[in-house]
């Protein structure tokens, strides 16, 4: 498994991967808004700013992470996903470590993200990777779904 920068032409494979890894979210009522965000067009346009990494195994893209960077030294992870067949194999942890390393090289001091309160697997994943909970925004991306704000100093 290798981790590398996103390149033009990866967007369709990344769309398929993200649609699979966010299938749990797409089952929730009112979640259709995320479809355009996970689309290949959106992935390509987001990749023009900040940092986008993919995890590749045997020519297949099995992991994706995008981070926007702010002028004041903070990065925001807008999306991270690993294909369902490849979850639990440390690929997510490796993507985080690499994006943190690249963030440090860009003189970022902190990374933050939002994770839904019901996504307990992902919350544990971030806790184990050194992120802590800063707060919660209630009824944010959907009514009844609360977003945990998590961050880590680099
Ligand atoms: C969260 C996610 C990126 C973690 O990636 P990963 O490669 O599975 O993570 P790792 O292998 O490094 O760590 C696995 C740990 O994450 C947690 N986890 C979260 N979702 C999991 C899943 N579906 N399968 C297995 N482990 C999962 C477990 O606590 C697991 O801990 P363990 O190793 O003690 O069993 C990945 O599970 C995923 O893509 N989830 C769906 C998309 C999503 O919800 N993204 C986060 C939005 S904020």
Structural description of this entry:
By secondary structure, the chain is α+β, with helices and mostly antiparallel strands. It has a domain at 2-108: Aminopeptidase (3-Layer(aba) Sandwich), CATH 3.40.630.30. It has helices at residues 11-21, 23-26, 33-37, 40-46, 91-105, 120-128; strands at residues 2-5, 51-57, 60-69, 74-82, 110-116, 132-142, 145-153. It is built from six helices and seven strands. It is globular, with a radius of gyration of 15 Å. Coenzyme A (COA) is lined by residues 21-22, 80-82, 87-93, 115, 119, 121-122, 124-125.
List key phrases describing it.
single chain; 7 strands; binds coenzyme A; 7-stranded mixed beta sheet; Aminopeptidase; alpha+beta; 154 residues; 6 helices; 37% strand
What does the secondary structure layout of this molecule look like, with pairings?
Elements: E1 2-5, H1 11-21, H2 23-26, H3 33-37, H4 40-46, E2 51-57, E3 60-69, E4 74-82, H5 91-105, E5 110-116, H6 120-128, E6 132-142, E7 145-153
Parallel strand pairs: 4-5
Antiparallel strand pairs: 1-2, 2-3, 3-4, 5-7, 6-7
Helix pairs in contact: 1-4
This protein binds coenzyme A.
The site of coenzyme A (COA) has 18 residues, from β4, α5 and α6.
CATH superfamily of the domain at 2-108, please? Gcn5-related N-acetyltransferase (GNAT)
CATH second-level architecture of the domain at 2-108: 3-Layer(aba) Sandwich
Strand order of the largest sheet: 1-2-3-4-5-7-6
Listing every helix as H and every strand as E from the N terminus to the C terminus, the arrangement reads EHHHHEEEHEHEE
CATH class of the domain at 2-108: Alpha Beta
Query: Span from first to last CA?
Result: 25 Å
Report mean pLDDT, rounded to a whole number. 97
Ligand inventory reads: coenzyme A
